[in-house]
Amino acid sequence: MMRLYLRRCLEKAGHEVEEWVPPSAMEIPDKIAAAAPDLVLCDYQMAGANGATVARMVRKANPHLPMLVLTAFHAGEMEANLLRLGVRQVLAKPIHHVALVQAVAEALQDAQAGV
Questions:
Q1: Is pLDDT of 97 > 80?
Q2: Is the pTM of this model over 0.85?
Q3: CA atoms within 13 A on the CB side of 2
Q4: Which domain holds residue 45?
Q5: What is the total count of domains within the chain?
Q6: CATH number at residue 65
Q7: Paired sense of beta strands 89-92 and 67-71, if any
Q8: Measured in whole angstroms, how far is the alpha carbon of residue 111 from the centre of its chain?
Q9: Is residue 91 helix, strand or coil?
Q10: Partners of 42 in the beta sheet?
């Protein structure tokens, strides 16, 4: 349900969304290289991986690719670790559609500006 909500919010705001659930975190660098996304948005808790693992794999594939992580577990240490790994922002669930669209727009704008 959450993925459908996120997808609809972003598509309604004019973003093209490709949903992908990796069978293994180790496949993330190859998928990013092949798909060349503008941004990665993921949940912190996933089957077989967590946001920190995904962040490491994203950085391996593209050190400058903006990444946002959603989480219901908003612990300071976890958030600090994700930010050190290059995650642009950690978003608390449940997230309002306006906050989601704003965070994505800001991340994409910063990426275009080279921030």
A1: yes
A2: yes
A3: 15
A4: 2-113
A5: 1
A6: 3.40.50.2300
A7: parallel
A8: 13
A9: strand
A10: 69
